[in-house]
Amino acid sequence: MLRYTYVMLSAILLLLPSFAQAEEVVFDRILVKINEEIITQYDLEEEMKPILAKVGDRTLNDAEKEQLKKMRKQLLDRMVNDKLLAQEIKKYDIKVSDDRVDKEIERIKAERGYTEEDFEATIKQDGLTLEQFRVKLQGIIEKQELLGYMVHSKVVVTDSEIEAEYEKNRNDYVLDKMVALAIIILPSDVAALEVQKRIEDGELTFVEAAEKYTIGPGKDQGGAIGDVAWDDLADEWRVALEGLKPGSVSAPIQVQGQAALLSPVKIIEDRLVPLEDVRDDIFNRLMNEKRETIFEEYFDKLKQSSVIVYMD
């Protein structure tokens, strides 16, 4: 029995290196070849660590497993793109100094109001050491430098393009309808229909009637309560004002339990936001659209000129 156990243990020990080697081969198998470089299973798993850390040891349902599979594919595609950009960065000898990284870290901390402790805690939550974060940040800055050289510098937005975009989307810059509104809130002993008729017959102006009768706001200003966006008015008020000309009087409505009359002192429609107020927004939008187009063209050409082989 003892000899049998010894033989079995010896056989297991002999097999262990083979198992270890097989596992290592599987774990380090090549997933993608990009020109002269590769991405391995190990590389992908390292990038997946922050995501897997959030998943933890819990059992995933089928939908979650499928989502995780998609995330792996998306991450692998991103790694391929990053590898291509890294090769371009090397090709054009783009280098980012430690001082530049330090300044960017300080900018991030200032922008988010982080103390040094806050900053370190945040990157730790992402599963990174400070040195790993610096390496990633350096890579991001290098890509920005590359894109600035290959893409951004080729983008120009002219004044005529901005003006054409403004005219094309003119409806987007029409301001809401506004009404300069006046109101008469009548005391209980005054008949609203009678006051309405006297105004319509020209015996009183709305201003005179407000000064004489109103118990509401704006008595000394003819009942004027200022400019109000049409869409902000209560439904009952909009119905009462619909179709009225400036200076005319509405049918009676109820306001806080009292009879009231409304008058559109002035109706402001079809107001356009001036071009100068939105010029910068249009410029930035057109710049981003052009940059995206040029980047896609640049990246398509880069991929076409590269040898990319997915091994699975």
What's this model, at a glance?
The chain is an alpha+beta fold and 312 residues long. The chain has helices at residues 2-27, 41-55, 62-91, 98-112, 116-125, 130-150, 159-168, 192-200, 206-213, 235-241, 275-304; strands at residues 30-34, 37-40, 178-185, 224-229, 253-255, 258-268, 308-310.
Characterize the structure shown.
This protein has 312 residues and is α+β, with helices and mostly antiparallel strands. Among the domains are: 51 residues; 94 residues, Chitinase A, domain 3 (Roll), CATH 3.10.50.40. Helix content is 58%, strand content 13%. It has eleven helices and seven strands. The protein has a four-stranded antiparallel β-sheet with strand order 4-3-6-5, sandwiched between helices. A three-stranded antiparallel β-sheet has the order 2-1-7. Strand 5 and strand 6 form a beta hairpin. Helix 3 crosses helix 6 and helix 4 crosses helix 6.
